[in-house]
Amino acid sequence: MNPLPPTDVRQLDLEKPNAARMYDYHLGGAHNFEADRVLAARVEQVAPWVRYVARINRSWLRRAVTYLMGQGIRQYLDLGSGIPTAGNVHEIVQRIDPATRVVYVDYESVAVHHSHELLKDDPNTTVVWADVRDPRSVLEHPETTRMLDFTQPVGVLVAGLLLFIGDEYDPAGLVRAYREACTGGGYLAISTMSRDEADQETAEQLAGLLHLYESADEQVYPRDRATIESWFAGTELVEPGLVLLDAWRPEGKPSDSPARLLGYGGVGRF
C-alpha cells in the first residue's frame, strides 16, 4: 500500500532546506539534498556541536525504547519519526522481539517515501503520511488501526518532534490526545531542546542556529524544563525523571560536548 498524503501537505522543494533532511545529514544519512547540506554546513559553523545534539537525541531514543521493551511494550507509535537512518525504532525493538509492531508517522514526503521503501517487506512495521498536529488523522488512519491495538499498552514516542511545533498548536493538548487514545499501562517518551542549562557561549551559538533556521523558513522552539514537564501530565515519570538527555539511564561515559546541555528527555507511564 502506497502512503496517501495528508491534507495541505507542503510540496517537495529541492531548493529549500528542510529540517528533517538536515537532521538526517547531521546523523550521517544520505537522504538529503544540496540545499539541506549547504544550510547544515552553515549551522555547523555557527554551532559546531549540532551533530552531537542529533546523536545524543538518537542515543536517548534507543535507551528509552530498550527500557520500554523491558517493560513488556510490544507496539509503538513513533510521531515525527523522520527520515530512516541506522538505529530506527523497528530495528531496535525487533532485535529483542521480531513480532513487535511499529507505526512511524511523518509529514515530510521524503521521510515517508524512503520509510515506505525500507519497510515494504516488513509485516510488523508501517509508515503513515499524516500531520501529527491532527491526531485524528493519525489515530484513525487505516494503517494505524491495522497495526496497533489500542486496547493493549502502546509506547508513544515523541523524540525531537515538539521542537518544530509552535505554541499555537498546543503541544500539551496534542500529547494528551495521543495519550488518551491509548489504554492504561502504556508509556510516553518525550525529548526536546532547551536552553535552560546552556552556558553563555552555547546559548549565543544556539541563537545563531535559530536565526539560520528562520532564514530557511524553519521555525525551532526550544522550551524550558517546566513546560516540557507539563507535557507529561497524566503520567508518572519513571526514574530518573525529566533530565538532560545523556543523563537518562546513561550507558558509558557522558558526552563532554556542550550539546549535552541542550535537551531534556523523560518517560512517563500512564
UniProtKB/TrEMBL annotation:
Kindly state which keywords UniProt assigns to this record, in alphabetical order: Methyltransferase, Transferase
**GO MF terms on file?**
methyltransferase activity
What is one GO biological process annotated to this record? methylation
Q: What is this protein called?
A: SAM-dependent methyltransferase
InterPro entries in the cross-refs? SAM-dependent_MTases_sf, SAM_dep_MeTrfase_SAV2177_type
Taxonomically, which superkingdom? Bacteria
